[in-house]
Amino acid sequence: MNKPQILFVEDDTAVGNLIATTLETQNYQFHRAKTGAGALMDALSYRPDVMLLDLGLPDMDGIEIIKKIRSWSNLPIIVVSARGEDADKVVALDAGADDYLTKPFSVEELLARIRVALRRVRYDSQKTSAEAALYENGDLKIDYAGGRACCRGAEMKLTPMEYKLLCLLAKNTGKVLTHNYIISEIWGVSAGEAVAEIPSLRVFMATLRKKLELDPSHPQYIQTHVGVGYRMIRQRQEDES
Fold it and tell me: Where does the Response regulatory domain start and stop, copy by copy (predicted)?
């Protein structure tokens, strides 16, 4: 099996050296860019499996890089930035980033985020058109054609809104979805109107969790990113290390 290819974009020497050492110890193949222009060229040339992206680059804001890449690629993008406000995370995720890690970060957390992104890549590459009608994630199964979901062998009694939320999260497994994105997709309202619907979203998400999770206070499937949104967690397969 080919080693995963990681492209990381970081102009700070110390942080760049830390990331390079971390990736090297895990036997990842990697390439480093220090500018936005270099990142875009490398994304085209190297076709990496995952991109780690700093937002504060000397020639271009990282948000613009995300938007440009999203115009032609679904490459998983993990933002690694010193911008730690919820508003900054929302902007990056709404632009198309898959995940957001705030500096300073632990090496263990960085590697965990990369593993999540790589599992998503493997899952997407293994799907066939026949399988696309059926979603499986651990004990959760969704029959899109039949419009029903089962968990732990029993059919879930979901309201139409709960089912829509579950499907949206499932189709973006491993990716953080912002409140604005979820509300615009489910309710069909503009970003400006989305804020008013966040309390309703939280209520529906709470009822969905009660039906999906064994212990809603310690969720196994739906992860909350406080002030940002939600993520469907891909369950580890038995054959994964």
Answer: 5-118
Helices (H), ranges, the chain: 13-25, 36-46, 62-70, 86-95, 107-126, 160-170, 179-186, 191-194, 198-212
The pTM of this model reads 0.78
Cα angle, residue 11 at apex, residues 10 and 15 outer, rounded to 5°? 65
185-234 pLDDT, tens digit each: 888 877 677 778 889 999 999 999 999 999 988 899 999 999 999 999 98
What are the distances in angstroms from CA 85 to CA 89, 92, 113?
7, 11, 19
Residue 31's DSSP bridge partners are 7
Contact 6, 52 (CB under 8 A): yes
Instruction: For residue 24, give the amino acid letter.
Output: E
Residue with tokens 């109107």: 193
**CATH architecture label of 5-125:** 3-Layer(aba) Sandwich (3.40)
**Can you tell me the distance from the alpha carbon of 63 to that of 200, in angstroms, rounded to the nearest whole number?**
29
The domains of the chain are located at 5-125, 129-232
Report the candidate in 214, 125, 219, 215 with the shortest Cα–Cα distance to residue 169.
219
CATH class of 129-232: mainly alpha
Please tell me whether residue 49 adopts helix, strand or coil conformation.
coil
- Give the tens place of pLDDT for each residue, 6-17: 999 999 999 999
